[in-house]
Every structure is written in C-alpha cells, then in structure tokens.
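Structure tokens please, single chain.
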Amino acid sequence: MRCCNKGKRQIAGASAARGRRGRTGALEGEMKGIIVVMGAFFVVCCGQYKAPFASFTILIMCGRFGLSYPRMSLKDWYRAAAMPEFEPHYNIAPTTSIVVIRDGEEGRTGSVMRWGLIPWWFKGPGKLPLLHNARSETVHEKKLFKASFHRQRCLVPASGFFEWERLADGRKQPFYISSRDGNPLSFAGIWDSATTGEGERVDSCAILTTDCNALMQPIHDRMPVIVPPEDWDTWLDPLPSTDEMLLPILKPFAPDLMQLWPCRLPWEVWRIRGRNCFSRSKLGIRMSQQDDVFQYEAPENIDKMGIFVSLRKLHLTKDDMYLQSQAHNLSLVDEFIMDIEYKILREWFETDRTPLATFFLSAQSQMWIFAAYEFLRTWQQRAREIIKWADNGGLEQKLAALKAKNDGYLHYGREIRIKQIEKIIAEPALISQIKQQQSHLHMPFRRLEHIRVSIAKHEISGKEKSTALMPGYGRINMWCGSLDYELENGHYSMGCINRRDIADSIRYLDFNQESPTSEMLGEFDDYMSGKGFQACTGQGLKSIAQENDIL
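Here you go.
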C-alpha cells in the first residue's frame, strides 16, 4: 500500500531495541530489506514512526485487502476440511485477525491468524514487530523468515487488494485489484507461532511480495505473490521443501487474469459487497453480472437540485410555493450531508475506526429523514383529499367553502388551495395523473415511514406499543458513507435503508414510467407488514435455510 513516493524510506528505530540479540543474531543487519506495511492511514508520510526494532528499511506495499466471500463457498473453493466463522471485511489492515489456509495432520483447513508475523522467539514486552510483508526474493535467505518459508507456509484468501498512486497534484488515488473471473486471490504467506510473556500462544503470518506485473506497473512497483490453484499443493506441503521447489512459484501473477479500476472520489470502496454479491455457479462464488455496476452514483455526477426538480413535478407542488420551499431545502441539505458522508467514509477507510463526526452525521441524517417524511406525508394527505372530493363530486362545494371564508386579510395558503381546486375542476384529467403519482410514491413513502417510526418512536410501523430492534442505530455504508438503518416488521428483517437510499428514490422518480398496479402495491404492503408470516423452528427452519443457500 502506498502513501509516499515509490522506493525506500529509512526509519530510525528505538535505540533500546539494539540490545536484543541472542538467537536473533545481528537484528540490524537482518532487518535490512524487510518489507513492512503501515496501511494508508499510518504516519509514514509524517516521518515520525519509531520502529520496535533497530533501524531498518521500509517499502510501503500491500497493506489493505478485502475478504467478502461466504464461508462455505471459501471452504469449497479451497477444498478445505474446515473453515472458521468470519465476518466479511472490506478494509483489512495490518494487525487484524485474518483467515489463512494451510495443510496439516487433519488435511487442508482454514484458521485465523494475526496479520503481522511474530517470530517464535519474541516474548515482549514492547510493541510487536510490524512484519506484515516479506520480499519473495530474499525470504529464503533471511534468518527471520527462512524457517517459516521452508516449513510453515499458508495461503491468504482475498477478494481483492488496494494500491495507491500519487497524482501530480499530491493527492493519492486508490485502485482496487481483483481476479478477472471473480474467484478469490490466494496470497502466498508464511506463518509462525509465538508465546507471549503471559503464556498466550499467538499464530501470525506475513504476505510475500514480488515485482509488479504489467497491470500493476503504472501504479506501484510491487504486488503480493498470488499462488495459482495448480501450485497450492506444493506451496502448502507441510513437509520441509527445497528452494528449487518453492522459488519458481514466487513470481508476478498473470496480468490477463486480473482487473484493476480506480475508486471514485476516491472513496467508492468496493463493487464487492459481501453475501448478496454472489450468485450460485459451479464454484458458488462468482460475482453476479448485475454486481459489476456500482450501486451509488458518484456525487459529482448527481444533479444538485435533482430532488427539488423531481418533487416539483408533483401536481399540488408545482403551484405551491411553500411545498416548493420544502423541496428546495431537502435538496440543499442533501448536498451538505452527502459531503459529510463521503468525508466520513474516507476517514473510516483510512483509519479503520468509526470517526467522531459520525455522531453529527447521525443527527443530520435523522433530521433530514424526518423532513423528507413530512414533505411526502403532507403531499399524500392533500392528494387523498383532492381525490376524495373529486370522487364524491365535492370539489365545487369545497371551493365555495374556501372562498366564503374572510379573515379580513389575504390568506396565502388558502389562496393556493383555491387555485389548485379551480385548476383541477378545469382539467379533470389531473385527478388520474395525481393517482398515478401516488402509486409511484407509495413504496418509497412506506419505506420512509417505516424507518421514521423506528427512529422517532422506537416502534415498528403499524404496530403500536411494539419495540423496534435497533432504533436509530446506523452503520456506515461501504459504498456511500450514509448510515444504514435496520428495516424490520417484528417478524423478519427486510434489510437496511439509509438516507442516501431515500434521497435517490426521490431524485430518480420517473412519472413517465408505468405505475405499479394495485396488486403489486398490496403485495408490497403485505411484505412490509409481515402479513402471512408463519414462524418455524427446528427442522422446518433448517430446510428453508438450505433451500435458500443460507447454510
């Protein structure tokens, strides 16, 4: 991973570390050339990092990758006898616990290790060594690595990895690199076991790097060693292996089997997004074709007044300056919050910690959701009234009643309503158009209403005195930085919705499309309310899970 110009950077280590000798030999000499990863957020650029060992050279390389494949698919892909439970992670940083594959007495298995090799002789106290990478050209020679290289090798599965290119203006542009066929990348790794001063055993690993291939060359001069499936057996053989057997594997991966693209903004993080990104195939882990499209439009491509333009198309809004003012406010604040969302996503991506500004974003997001709900609720109420009066033949009566009121001053709100009714009386076809717009807004409004009730009342929409599962708890969305809120109806989860989802559902309303039928809207309402849901347990639940490829 890259945060500065290509090449090496000398970093002075702590002088106290110079005294660590014994079996380690001359550490200062051995540490020369070791490749250590800091991650994009580290302080290398500041030049203020004190290494836990003696002075050594750092190459900034391969410090962030992701793993988002389902556990069972990964188990099948590697033909492993066992695979540990793990959560999809899209921003794996050094010192994180990661999944590795190795062969042993029980056959090929997956296990969890610390990313950052801890030599067997390290007892502490003090900071752990930052040995996240090792050069493939010298790994068989360096005393720190050669024992692990010859006897303790592993594979590190990844959906893809990141590299940074420094642009002419000083900014850093991230690129995401993955396999072209959608299958996992298998990084070559070495591992070791150490026992801490407290007697705790820690398994840890490092990823080997090599020269870049033609695809990587424009952005970085190094890349991880990627082991093709035909070399897995040789690489994972637990028996001592010779350099002649292993070194030919440590070469740049074929560029035509990889793909690379820049991340927008640059914080459009992944096209890979966990379980839902995968469809059944021969291996069960290929990306579906629809996931090759980014889910959220980049802000620079969004019409800043798109929400206002969309809402202004609604009858009863285009001739109401107060509703137009509300729509205008929603557009302005949407732009403001979207900027915060991407800044938070950027900070979260760089530090792998939830930024403090997320609390402010949560407050702003919820207030925007409430404002959007009130606008649509007001429009829906007025639309229902107009349709009711029209269906009952009461438009003229309502118009006469409004005109008869005289408060001694000009009532602007009432005058707007009078003009709207007069227009509808003159153009009866507008009623059908309002009904059509109602149908288009029904689903977005129901979802918005659902999350609004959860956040504001801590209840489930339509179920008084119920308790929402996680009211107001938002998680940063990996694609856009907006906060994802849980949608549930008391029976099952309906996934997540965020402020950006709501904004986009309004922004991209197309009233020229065919409106949903009443049957479709009825089925949607049943789904949102959980109507017809029957709880099942035991074997019945297991059967459903198997049918839906959950187990």
